[in-house]
Amino acid sequence: MNGNVTPKTIHLEINGVACEARPGEMIIQVADRVGIYIPRFCYHPHLKIAANCRMCLVEVAKAPKPLPACATPVTEGMCVQTRSDAALHSQHATMEFLLINHPLDCPVCDQGGECELQDLAMGYGFDHSRYEEPKRVIADENVGPLISTDMTRCIFCSRCVRFLEEVAGAQELAIVGRGERSAVRSFLAGEITSELSGNIIDLCPVGALNSKPFRFAARSWEMLALPGISAHDAMGSNLYGHTLRGRLLRVVPRPAEGRNETWLSDRDRFSYAGLYHEDRVVSPKVRENGVLREASWDEALEVSARKLEDTVSREGPESVAALVSPQATLEELYLYEKLLRGLGVRNIDVRLYRADFRDGPRGSRAEVPGVLSATEWESRKACLLVGTDLRSEYPLISWRLRRAAEAGARLAALNPVQFESRLPLSFDRPVGPWGLVASLAALLGRLDPSSFSGELAWAAPWAERSGLSAAELGVLGEILAAGPEGALVLGELVEAHPEGSRIRALAAALSQASGARLIDLPVGANALGAERVARCWPDRGDPLPLLLDPPKKLYVLFGVEPEYDLWDGDRAVQAMAQAPELLVFASWLAPSHAAHASVILPVAAIPETGGTYVDLAGEEQSFEAMVPPWGDARTGWKVLTMLGQRLGLSGFHYEQRVEILEEMRARGSHPLNGAQSCIPEREGQAGPQDVRFPYRMGRRAVYGTDPYVRRSTPLQQTPLARLSRTLFLHPDDAREQGVQPGARVRPAGKPDAPVLTVAVSNRLPRGIVWLDSGTESAVGWGPSWGRLELDFPASTEILI
Amino acid sequence: MNPPTTLSPEICREIDHWIAQYPPEGRRSATLAALRIVQEHGGGWIRPESILAIAEYLGLPPVAVEEVARFYSMYELKPTARHSVSVCTNVSCMLCGSGTILDHLEKRLGIRPGQATADGRIYLKPEEECLAACAGAPMMMVDHVYHEHLTPERVDEILESLE
Ligand code: SF4
Ligand code: FES
Ligand code: FES
What we know:
The complex is a heterodimer of chains A (800) and B (163).
Chain A: E1 10-14, E2 17-21, H1 27-33, E3 57-60, E4 67-68, E5 78-81, H2 85-100, H3 116-124, E6 147-149, H4 159-167, E7 173-176, E8 183-186, H5 199-203, E9 209-211, E10 224-229, E11 238-244, E12 247-253, H6 266-270, E13 285-288, E14 291-294, H7 297-315, E15 320-324, H8 330-342, E16 348-349, H9 374-378, E17 382-386, H10 390-393, H11 395-406, E18 410-414, H12 432-447, H13 459-464, H14 470-480, E19 486-490, H15 492-495, H16 500-514, E20 517-520, H17 527-534, H18 544-548, E21 554-558, H19 562-565, H20 569-578, E22 581-586, H21 591-596, E23 599-602, E24 611-614, E25 620-623, H22 636-646, H23 657-667, E26 695-697, H24 707-710, H25 713-716, H26 719-724, E27 726-729, H27 731-737, E28 744-747, E29 756-760, E30 768-770, E31 786-787, E32 796-798
Parallel strand pairs in A: 1-5, 15-16, 15-21, 17-18, 17-19, 19-20, 21-22, 22-23, 26-30, 27-29
Antiparallel strand pairs in A: 1-2, 3-4, 3-5, 6-9, 7-8, 10-11, 11-12, 13-14, 13-23, 24-25, 26-31, 27-30, 28-29, 28-32
Chain B: H1 9-19, H2 31-41, H3 48-58, H4 62-71, E1 83-87, H5 91-95, H6 98-109, E2 122-124, E3 140-142, E4 145-147, H7 152-160
Parallel strand pairs in B: 1-2
Antiparallel strand pairs in B: 1-3, 3-4
The site of iron/sulfur cluster (SF4) has 14 residues of chain A, from helix 4.
């Protein structure tokens, strides 16, 4: 070696087995690869090395003392013994030390049966204890509704601390105190606010951190582990559902290297708690004399068929409009559309959270160029995030980008307000609602001044008023300079933006001019699947706003809660209240269903159904049901099949689910001619306006994305969920309006609307009233974005 | 979206002085000094809001500042008193009679280590480790001043001199 060349491959021996390794690898990594198990607590392949538990001590020839395998780099010719007397002696000794203060409460510990300490104590410990003195006790703390703590069990491996700092991006736990008084604590014993917090439950090798919603629900060995797919974003995270006697009791990650690795967002992990919520629809219902009453399947299907047929024959198929959730499976989406088309109905939309429909009908979204696989995110050299609070929208993409940044990627965010992104951003100044359009226009002008001559002529006045300094433009421009190795990401705030079509048009031009990959993040777990289904038919109906105004005669909803899921929920509910008939396929009952539905058909929730999702990379993942449908609910595709038959439509005889997808593929794809053009057709405003108070804005609440997660009580109790129900004002606006932080308000004239608490934040620009949508707290506050009709706060009741 | 917390301009100036001692990426090294400054200005203890404010000022996670504050026994996280008295009870002092000194203090003040007198005059720090004045054992520290070769009479004198 002579000290100047590092060999590419290092040769060593572990327990007499010849191994090869790369320079810099630790003994434990090589041992894991060749299948030699070395006990460990603090080491985790996806966390930085701490080497503080000493469980991994091994004997290395010529080393004077045992060495920690997790922190000892391999060297040429190294001879390692993991099971020699000396190694075993060290491992025994470490185990004895660890058990000194560990309580012997395995019979009442949820970790029992899946506990690394229990397993290793069996394998590497003594069967009795020499320690008879009192053990130290640590007071538990309340770190929130998701994680239960039994801190006396902690062995200080620091995995939880490292995870939150390294993976989740904010150190929220620390080992506080010294020596025997050390304890893992959150700041001032407060709640953990990470959107990925549940992973520390899996990481904790003992029972110090466990799942609170699952506490004392079952023993780990009683349950079945069944594979599933996440239903709340298009990441397609793989998971296991743990079931007992037909009930889903817990969700944990299913390792998928290119996808969620070994993590799961809290939304995916704890949504299951909503499955058995009291809102679950357990039997079909029909309305009689104004009252919803239980009905048999036979009756409910008959009534549904009759109402559909009657309305179509009396008022024509254009008098019917249908909405469907982007959380529905490909099979459900296809059959839903096929059924409605069978009656001649074409007015079907799935873009529930979109504000601006000028740039094309459903199915016109470019699917192929705008996708990145999970690992491709990580290899980005630069990324410009436009209109997204990624932590809440795609928690695991935000984690991938954090890793990309660690590897040197440059990130910047163009957002109307400043989010707590937990990402290192080179630009993060809030630009206000119109600033999104104006900043992109300015960037385009800088990149290619000639682009304002043609179809994008409208963009020139926007570019002039972007308010970005030359230095700021330079910083943003550098991101795009990464070309095809960079990405331009459009999030759900673009979807919710009243000028969204302009943003999409500018982003497309920017991507073309710079080469940066354009990613339009799907809003909904199967939003891309819905696009695919739309293209199965050559023609499209009207977009969503035209379906609500003027109101139709009959609305059909599949998994949609209009008051929460729609961009302008208040208006949608009004339209449905005016429509004579409302036909609802749902797993949970929303207030609008209860108030206006003529028929409710209970369909199985996602864990109870088999189906297929298209993830954000365009890849299909099929899954099977983990538990049977709750109550008298039936799988969505079967309900649609039954209704299709009842209507006498042809082609509704499916034996198996796969036949549906086969049929769908055989139909081929019908892209719309000319509909790809992203140029807004109508003259809107000629440049950015001033934002005048009170302009309401918000994102979809992190735990308000779909009916399922909305019913998860533990998630609704988290600090993140509480923020989603808070009304934020700029401090100066609050002062001007005479509203104190902490004031309790509700919109005037709406005594039923929920009361909200006011908070101030200087992460908002002036003029903004920030309130997330997707929860009951936003009902009555108008569209997700737009000037509030109310005269704030004069027409707002201030209750305290 | 938390409301901002603030430190007084005077405190910030003092902290800035310490920040300037370290390279820019070593901003977090000023944590120790910042905690001390805040404690001195805050009547001898550090309030939770101040920890948050320091964290914000230095750009650190709040729990990282709390970690430091709880590690060193010189930081007080609960209200104390006008004067702080620490009696060393480590080996040298113990051999030279620190037990008698502590007993005397406890009796005279009517408080136990970790408590403050009702009039807010004296705070007796919990068990203190070797203060590196073994040659003058037994010893105690009153508001950063060392008093050595203690006897109960000497302790009374010192206490009386405190207002
Ligand atoms: S709580 Fe669990 S994960 Fe955290 S340090 Fe203790 S043992 Fe390790
Ligand atoms: S696993 Fe090596 S020291 Fe903990
Ligand atoms: S033992 Fe008291 S000063 Fe050293």
